[in-house]
Amino acid sequence: MRLPRRTSPYLVDGALAALVLFAVSLQFLFPDEGGDPLSWQGFLLGAGTAVPLIWRRRAPLLCAAAITCATPAMALYHAPPPDVVYGGLVLLYTLAAYAEPVPRRVMLVGWLIGASATMSMKEHAEPFEYAFHLLSVLSAYGFGVLARTQRAYTTALEERARALEREREIDRSRAVTSERARIARDMHDVVGHAVSLMVVQAEAGPVVVRSDPVRAEAAFDAIAGAGREALQQLRLILGVLTDTGNGRGGLAAPVPGLARLPDLIRQVSATTDVTVTLRASGHPRPIGAETETAAYRIVQEALTNTVKHAYAARADVQLDWGAAELVITVTDDGTGSGSSAASGGRGLVGIEERAAACGGSARSGPAPHGGFRVTARLPATHRPAAEKAP
User: Fold this and answer.
1) Would you call 317 helix, strand, or coil by DSSP?
2) In 3D, which of 182, 169, 170, 166 has the Cα closest to residue 241?
3) Considering only CA atoms, which of 340, 273, 271 is closest in space to residue 305?
């Protein structure tokens, strides 16, 4: 079935026309008793019902006109008329499969009338002969309709497959874009936080290096610690980019979550001049890993903005566990902008994106009693059992 599709249409239709011409010529080569022998007039009329089939798919209406004229002429020339109009049957199949509705229906009716008129020319025609010719015409047309329906069904399936493939490509592209955005947010948070702490300590180091060597040494230790922490987090983030599916690409490091918030608070308090406190209310419970990571990064980014832009002496981190959400509030007493937007950064935008990515929301602005405040509301539904498994 695949070979005719790969072969030239003219070659296939030419072979079909030759086969029809051979079948039509048999009635002249082997005439019935009293029939006409082969003559050049009969051969030309027979050829007129077969040769136009070469263009049956390229010009179906012209082919139909030629065969429709040649077939009655051959019937009149040959007495009695041929039992099977091979060219006409192929023509009706072609029209039913390829032509527009009006031409193919008109041609069907015309051939049914023509077949009945041709049989009326035959002496002592039996009823079954009428039925045979009419059923032959209807059968050829019916096979063409089935072929057209099958072709339309196949085309619809192919189009659906292409649409599904396009949807898969779009989904894959969206997934890649989302993953790149997540990695970019993580890298921004990790690098921004670590660099902020290192800059603060590096600026304080030269001031106390002679007057307070112990404090200077602590500053350099803080710089080294922040750098090591940043490198560890970057290896964890970038490990997914080199993961080949065998578990060797990423590092077995813990994903930042709520359990690591105390370490973050202690790090910021120990390495900067900002005193940070952590408080919680309500009933803590396990939540999704994505939400936990978002909560950690939101607090980290808010404290980074406080250290870099707020000129604050104190910051408070409040976790309020509600029935269906976790409200995170980070407030400082700074006199600066308290936000990275004033310096051209995208820290607050990243906080809003992280909250929205896990189904929450975030807003930021000046606190009522001075300073700056970041509030994030994250869904805090119970983690599914499959997600709780280690």
Assistant:
1) strand
2) 182
3) 340
What are the start-end ranges of the H helices in the chain? 2-6, 9-29, 40-48, 60-77, 86-98, 101-120, 127-208, 213-239, 261-271, 289-305, 347-357, 385-388
What is the Cα–Cα distance from 148 to 311, expressed in whole angstroms? 77
The predicted model scores a pTM of 0.47
Give the integer Cα–Cα distance in Å for 219 and 261.
22
Q: Of 83, 84, 80, 85, whose CA–CA distance to 48 is shortest?
A: 85
Amino acid at 239: G
The span from the CA of 298 to the CA of 98, in Å, is: 64
Dihedral (CA of 178, 184, 185, 186) sign: positive
What are 32's two structure tokens? 């019935």
8 A C-beta contact, residue 364 and residue 351:
yes
pLDDT in tens, 312-360: 889 999 999 998 899 999 999 987 655 544 444 467 887 888 888 888 9
Contact assessment for residue 277 and residue 167, using Cβ atoms and an 8 Å cutoff: no
3-class secondary-structure state, position 345: coil
Phi/psi for 59 (5° steps) reads -140, 75
Q: What are phi and psi of 278, to 5 degrees?
A: -125, 125
How large is the C-alpha radius of gyration of the chain?
A: 43
